[in-house]
Specification:
heterodimer; A: alpha/beta; Rossmann fold; 2 domains; two-stranded antiparallel sheet; 13 helices; 41% helix; elongated; B: 861 residues; 4 domains; eight-stranded mixed beta sheet; 57% helix
């Protein structure tokens, strides 16, 4: 009767019917599209040569994940992504004992799998995770490069190709959530921001085939104005990702103002006044 | 016309019928014997009366004059002197009978002057029947109250009727009858205000306006009368609150966000002090902030107007550098300086008879430059301006040509067909270049003036209508020059040396090019410009003096800001809406302190305190225990696992509750104790435990001591009020302030004063919670009676409803109010205000000190 309840817990590990958490390297024949904003590609490659853990800092939707997919492809490593949330415990990362039949069986977590397989492990939005789960990555990120499995009393030495990458969104949500300094200082940090106007336009045209250059330019202009409202109740400003969505809706045949409303305004805020201000911005660019 | 003739036809001969011969001289002689003055007055007018209406009528007239002179000399004189006008108004003769009716009403002699004076216009606007009704209403008032009658007849009929004939008169007078009957409010105090209310807001607004006034009148005669005369701040505010349209004050955040989006940063938004009788509502500026009228026609007007006027600030209409260049051409270099009021009068006066046209044209050119610049950052701006202008419909009179011209220039800026001739288009194109400045706008306007065929505009109304919707006169308000275009963000750069020297280099060049265009006129201009300069200099001086003296007229209340405190809205259940900025809460410090009393109370309640502290220690939150037997969690619950495994082994199918996790039960609470410090706490308690205030002091003191033990953040405050604009909020202890001797002494010195405007106090207490980072926030109200204030007009429900709304707002803001009262009748009203379970009535007042901390501990569980 309670079988279904058990399933999710098992799926955290690798129950039947789930994909392997460590994907093959280069899952696509072509490198994922990425438009460099600066020298981040070179810097990342240098860090990888020295196997230094990397921290990607920047607002949501500015291309951190895409950058990492691109880099994993270039470096020919599998990419293991863990999206962190506030209930993420160290067990979810490292692994846990599961009951199988009348016995307990140890199940490696995604981090342990990546460590063993020599993948790039990407802990997305790590501030969201609880502090106890962030601390377990410490031994992995210095010269030791080992992952202690406390519950089994063992320690896993990292594969020579393994690299840990975390992303971190400064000023996200409240001030209460922040990485401990002792965690932060273990990383090489790359600052990301929304791409420059020209770059962002290129990204839109590239990501959304069929988008007219003029519409792309207007969308980018809307975003730049909307981003000025960051401190007025907008937790997260209009991201490049949201722009891509809006562009897709336009290409799908929606009138531009409506497309912007559903892709840029409605998801971002419940604040009526703020939404009204955003709509004004859209209306100033699209008739 | 034809009708008039028909009416006159039969009437005329009937009245011209001859009277008994000799009767008229006889009546006249009798009058002379009775009164020399009456005789003289009548004699002067009589020939005209005889000539117009014949002797019979004249005889009747002389008789009436005599009776009125007997009644009162002034009345008779007013009657006689008003006669020629009354006759000129028409053949209707009933006014003699009407005038005679005044004789029967004591004290009504004051009214006859107004009656006779307004009679012609009454006949003209209302017709004979309407005029009779008008007189009847007035006479009825004379019967009620002589001064009211006089006030009634003194008001021009046209104004009284408000284009609605007799119905209009009844509309304003009917509510007045009730007001007079119940509150003895005279018509003189009521009518002028009521008429203005009707002009501004329509007839429907008179009723609510009068009802509100009645409350005030009951509370305070003087304030009430001032309200009805529209002399008091509150009545004007109420009126402005009723204005229809888009209210910028309510959307300040929205407008500021727009400004942030377009110009990088918001500028201050203030009130322009506009009222509807000043004509059209414009967004204005003083060179630094935007000044908004109370209401704009709609949202589109507001958005475009805000963008436009902020554009003037951002693109340098009032920037010192270009203005200095501009004025330098007239030899007025000194006329422009930073933070000095700008006067464009010398530039405009230069054009002599064409000055008014030039003023509009200059604004039009500068507006074009600004709107084009805005269009570069907000691409649809120009088409929206055009659309709004089209929607608003064409202006009337000469303004129409101006609006059409402005729209043509906008189309020019859009690159569409515009219908302007080449010469003008070429000139205007200069304004569309990115480096154009206000000086260019001036030069273009000068060159355009002889070319364009725009009509002269004479009235202020037409001049206002000449601006497209969304635009406004650029010097509508006193404007001070600002440092530079591109607004404050560039300030630091501009102060840099290289930047400023570059800035100096430019102007000369500009100046020359402008000079060429205006060159010919320049020589003639010298003299008049010099004169204008002198004029403007003195004007500026005057203005400067005025500024230092009084600032308040344009921002009521703001001048007294620190004293009056923070305004909060108040809920009016009768209108079912909030009255904006209604209750003013000022934070104050209690002057009295009494360390001895505090010590005495502490000693007296030492036993209770000890008991409380023990209870608190026992209840103190410990480290949360792990939750065992969970469906999921961080760790295996070993015991549960063993049980699970064994049960499975035994062939059963147990629930897999085998995990444990640490509970995250947050008990963080912050609390504010808000004590009602109204006069009523000074009374002696019936049960013989002394004055209520002693109990309140002890309660607050024990509460604080207990809170120290509990360790939760807490603050203590008190409140009292007298009228809506004087709510005092006493901060006794802040959240981050230690509970020390001085706080103890203040609590020892607590005393009661004034009344209980609870809603405003709750709103302020909630406001004070800002910055307190606890998941749960509690507002404990300590009260001894119902919400009341001096100006609630005896309507208890009003403040009850407002308090209820304040409680609701608090809950929405994440603050949970709880009321503790010693008023044993509180069960009648607290359930409605706070809701069941959110209040507690202490019937034993003496138990308050011990109960207060206990209640808190129970609540925080």
């Amino acid at each position: 009767m309670n079988q279904p309840d058990r399933q999710p817990a098992a799926a955290n590990g690798a129950g039947e019917g789930t994909h392997d958490i460590v994907p093959p390297a280069r899952p696509t024949p072509e490198a994922p599209y990425y438009e460099p904003q600066g020298r981040e590609v070179e810097i990342f490659e240098a860090a990888y040569r020295r196997r230094l853990p990397v921290m990607l800092k920047g607002p949501t939707g500015c291309g951190k994940t895409r950058f990492l997919e691109h880099m994993a492809w270039r470096l020919d490593r599998p990419l293991v992504t863990v999206s962190c949330h506030e209930d993420l415990t160290s067990s979810d990362l490292v692994g846990r004992f599961l009951l199988e039949g009348s016995e307990t069986v140890w199940q490696d977590g995604p981090l342990t799998r990546a460590v063993k397989a020599g993948a790039i492990c990407y802990l997305d939005e790590i501030v969201e995770a609880r502090t106890d789960s962030t601390v377990i990555i410490h031994p992995l990120t210095d010269h030791r490069r080992r992952l202690p499995l406390e519950k089994t009393g063992r320690e896993v030495a990292a594969h020579p190709d393994f690299l840990l990458v975390i992303s971190y969104n400064p000023g996200y949500q409240t001030v209460l959530k922040d990485l401990k300094p002792s965690t932060k200082q273990r990383f090489v940090a790359l600052n990301f921001d929304f791409p420059a106007e020209e770059t962002e336009r290129r990204i839109l045209v590239n990501e959304v085939p069929g988008l007219e250059a003029d519409a792309a330019a207007r969308l980018v202009a809307v975003a730049r104005k909307a981003r000025a409202l960051k401190d007025h109740g907008l937790d997260e400003v209009t991201s490049t990702r949201a722009l891509v969505y809006a562009a897709s809706m336009i290409v799908a045949g929606l009138p531009p103002v409506e497309a912007c409303q559903v892709a840029l305004i409605n998801p971002m805020t419940d604040d009526l006044e703020l939404a009204a201000a955003l709509l004004e911005i859209v209306r100033a660019h699209f008739e | 016309m034809g009708q008039d003739d028909q009416q006159q036809g039969p009437a005329e001969p009937a009245q011209v019928e001859a009277a008994e011969p000799g009767a008229l001289p006889e009546a006249l002689a009798a009058l002379g014997r009775a009164s020399f003055v009456a005789h003289r007055e009548v004699q002067a007018v009589l020939p005209a009366v005889v000539a117009a209406r014949g002797e019979a009528f004249a005889l009747e007239w002389v008789g009436a004059a005599r009776r009125l002179f007997d009644f009162d000399r002034d009345a008779g004189r007013a009657f006689v002197r008003g006669t020629p006008d009354a006759m000129a108004a028409g053949p209707e003769g009933r006014w003699i009978a009407q005038a005679l009716r005044f004789v029967d009403v004591p004290g009504s002699w004051k009214s006859i002057d107004g009656f006779m004076g307004n009679l012609p216009s009454a006949l003209a606007t209302l017709g004979p029947i309407g005029a009779a009704r008008w007189a009847d209403i007035g006479l009825a008032w004379c019967g009620r109250h002589a001064d009211s009658g006089a006030a009634y007849f003194a008001i021009p009929v046209r104004e009284l009727a408000g284009r609605q004939g007799v119905a209009g008169i009844e509309q304003v007078c009917t509510p007045a009858e009730e007001l007079f009957a119940h509150r003895r409010l005279s018509l003189g105090n009521f009518l002028p205000g009521a008429l203005r209310v009707r002009t501004l807001l329509g007839a429907g607004a008179i009723g609510p306006w009068a009802r509100r006034g009645i409350d005030l009148l009951t509370a305070d005669r003087f304030r009430g009368e001032a309200y009805f005369r529209l002399e008091s701040d509150e009545s004007l505010r109420l009126l402005l609150d009723e204005l229809p349209g888009f209210r910028p004050k309510d959307h300040e955040r929205f407008l500021k966000m727009l400004l942030t989006a377009w110009y990088g940063q918001p500028c201050e938004i203030g009130e322009s002090g506009w009222s509807p009788d000043r004509g059209r509502a414009f967004v204005e500026t003083d060179g630094r902030s935007l000044l908004m009228p109370v209401a704009l026609p709609d949202r589109e007007h507001a958005v475009l107007g805000t963008l436009h006027v902020a554009g003037h600030l951002a693109f340098g209409t009032y920037a010192v550098a270009p203005l200095r260049r501009l004025f330098a051409q007239f030899g007025l270099e000194g006329a422009v300086a930073e933070a000095l009021a700008i006067s464009w009068e010398p530039l405009i006066a230069f054009h002599g008879e064409d000055a008014e046209r030039f003023r509009l044209l200059f604004d039009l050119c500068e507006d074009l430059r600004i709107d084009h610049a805005i269009g570069c950052i907000a691409p649809t701006h120009l088409s929206r301006l055009l659309r709004l202008a089209a929607l608003s419909g064409p202006a009337e009179g000469p303004a129409r040509a101006w609006c059409d011209y402005a729209m043509a220039t906008l189309r020019l800026a859009q690159g569409r067909t515009h219908g302007l001739d080449d010469a003008q288009a070429r000139l205007l194109a200069r304004l569309l270049e990115p480096d154009a400045t206000v000086a260019d706008a001036h030069a273009v306007a000068c060159a355009l003036l002889p070319l364009c065929a725009l009509p002269a505009v004479y009235t202020a109304e037409d001049a206002q209508a000449a601006y497209l919707p969304g635009r406004s006169p650029n010097l509508g308000h006193e404007v001070k020059a600002a440092e530079g275009p591109g607004s404050r963000s560039e300030r630091s750069e501009e102060q840099g040396d290289s930047q400023s020297s570059e800035g100096e280099g430019d102007p000369d060049e500009e100046g020359e090019s402008v000079e060429q265009e205006t060159g010919a006129q320049e020589a003639e201009a010298d003299e008049s410009a010099a004169a204008a300069h002198a004029q403007s200099a003195s004007a500026r001086k005057g203005a400067g003096e005025m500024r230092s003296g009084e600032r308040s007229p344009q921002a009521p209340g703001k001048g007294q800001g620190p004293d009056r405190g923070i305004p909060y809205p108040e809920w009016d259940y009768r209108e079912n809406r909030y009255k904006a900025d209604w209750a003013w809460v000022a934070e104050k410090v209690l002057a009295e302190s009494n360390p001895l009393e505090a010590q005495r109370l502490a000693d007296r309640h030492a036993g209770t305190l000890k008991r409380l502290k023990k209870a608190i220690q026992a209840q103190k939150p410990t480290r949360p225990a792990p939750l065992t037997r969970q469906m999921d969690g961080d760790d295996l619950d070993l015991e549960a696992t063993v049980r699970y495994v064994t049960e499975r082994a035994a062939g059963r199918s147990p629930e897999p509750r085998v995990y444990k996790r640490r509970a995250i039960r947050n008990r963080d609470v912050a609390v504010t104790l808000l004590a009602d410090l109204s006069t009523s706490i000074m009374q002696t308690v019936a049960d013989g435990s002394g004055r209520l205030v002693d109990t309140v002091r002890a309660g607050v003191l024990l509460f604080a001591e207990s809170m120290e033990e509990v360790g939760d953040p807490y603050s203590i405050a008190g409140f009292c009020s007298k009228y809506r604009d004087n709510v005092n909020y006493y901060r006794i202890k802040d959240f981050d302030q230690p509970f020390n001797e001085s706080v103890r002494s203040t609590v020892g010195g607590l005393s009661g004063r004034l009344a209980t405007r609870m809603g405003a106090a709750i709103r302020h207490a909630v406001h004070r919670f800002e910055g307190v980072q606890t998941p749960r926030r509690l507002l404990l109200l300590l009260s001894d009676g119902r919400p009341e204030d001096y100006d609630d007009g005896g309507d208890r429900r009003y403040l009850h409803e407002d308090t209820r709304m304040a409680v609701k707002e608090a809950v929405n803001a994440g603050v949970h109010p709880f009321c503790i009262t010693v008023d044993t009748l509180a069960n009648q009203y607290l359930p409605q205000i706070f809701g069941r379970g959110h209040y507690l009535v202490l019937d034993q007042i003496g138990s308050l000190p011990a109960k207060l901390p206990e209640i808190y501990l129970r609540l925080r569980r």
